[in-house]
Amino acid sequence: MKIKWLKLKNFRNYSECFVEFSDGINLISGKNGQGKTNLVEGVMINALTKSPRTSSDNDMKKEGSDISEAEVCLERNYGEVKLCCRISTEFKKQFFINSNEVKKLSEVFGNLVAVYFSPADLKIVSGSPSDRRDFIDTDISQLSGSYYTLLNRYNKVLDQRNRLLKTVHNRAEIEEQIDIWNEQLASLAGHIIKTRKSFIKKLSSPASETIKFITNGADKLSISYVGANGENSEEIKSEILSSLQNNLSKDMELGYTTIGPHRDDIKFSLNGHDSRIFASQGQQRSIVLALKIAELETFEAELGEKPILVLDDVFSELDTFRQKSLYEKFKGVQVLMTGTLFKFKPDEDYLSLNVKEGSVKSKIMQKKK
């Protein structure tokens, strides 16, 4: 898939902006604070239904504006698709596909599929379990809107169970009501955990091969899921259900549910050691980089076409060898890459986009012969 153009209106520091992209590598350069990241944010909100930078939609509205829009035109194997995110004072956030308003957010997923990498993504390795769960859930949701719906259903049932634990203090009364929530929660959890495990298995091999490639064979990576055991959803459901029953006293004391996919984790082991504890920052960056390449390959295998790759201000943090290694992995992928300065340029034609005070100037740079 390829993004043909991006149109912004009252988005961040852009009043009006129209940018056409090349099918290959697009280098978006400029000083800090000029609007480079705002461009790719306009792309990503149409892929993820949310900004990768902020939890507040209003942050994306240009100051003093009532309506903000980010629209992309996408070329897929099956034809052209136009996606638009509109943020307004009256309707908050709306999405449109080919000018038709989408009623369910799950319908947005799968149209524009993108791998996004920013410096904040180091938290996938070094951060909390919730950071790693968000990483895996976001990836799977891009490929499956039904998984996004499944997560929402799980969270609603979880809220109901937690409300019961918080508001009712008589154990007998809780026991009368909680079985129905346990059954629903365990059933949904079985499907969620099975899907997560399956996706991690798909990521593991290409991530392991990539870490070897970018470290000249120095490092070995393995990825594992930390949660309920079981090979299929029924086995996982059975274990979750038993754990919910056995942990009832603890849950009542704490006032919330301590078992389930909302508490699980993903473990990245580098050379046999927990990378969260033992890996250096450089090694953690290599792990995340390997994950992003693995996402590219996994998404392509699932979609039957290559996704978009967005690298937001990460290239300058990599040494020359890793930069060259990355370019080798980019073949045939449309890349949107932001940075203040690109010392190492692609060994192919690329589009240079210079951003200054919310204005973008483009120039095709041809490979030197």
Mean pLDDT: 93
Number of helices: 10
Assess the beta-strand content as a share of residues: 15-25%
CATH homology group of the largest domain: RecF/RecN/SMC, N-terminal domain
Distance between the termini: 29 Å
Q: Can you walk me through this structure?
A:
- By secondary structure, the protein is an alpha/beta fold.
- The chain has two domains: 176 residues, P-loop containing nucleotide triphosphate hydrolases (Rossmann fold, 3-Layer(aba) Sandwich); 187 residues, Glutathione S-transferase Yfyf (Class Pi), Chain A, domain 2 (Up-down Bundle).
- The chain contains ten helices and 15 strands.
- The strands form three sheets. It has a six-stranded antiparallel beta sheet, with helices on one face. Strands 8-12-13-3-14-15 form a six-stranded mixed beta sheet, with helices on both faces. Strands 9-10-11 form a three-stranded antiparallel beta sheet.
- Strand 10 and strand 11 form a beta hairpin.
- Helix 3 packs across helix 4, helix 4 runs antiparallel to helix 5 and helix 5 crosses helix 6.
Write the layout of secondary structure elements.
Blueprint: E1 2-11, E2 14-20, E3 25-29, H1 36-48, E4 67-76, E5 79-88, E6 92-97, E7 100-101, E8 114-117, H2 123-126, H3 129-143, H4 145-167, H5 171-214, E9 221-226, H6 233-246, H7 248-254, E10 265-270, E11 273-274, H8 275-278, H9 281-303, E12 308-312, H10 320-329, E13 335-339, E14 350-356, E15 359-365
Parallel strand pairs: 3-13, 3-14, 8-12, 12-13
Antiparallel strand pairs: 1-2, 1-4, 4-5, 5-6, 6-7, 9-10, 10-11, 14-15
Helix pairs in contact: 3-4, 4-5, 5-6, 5-9
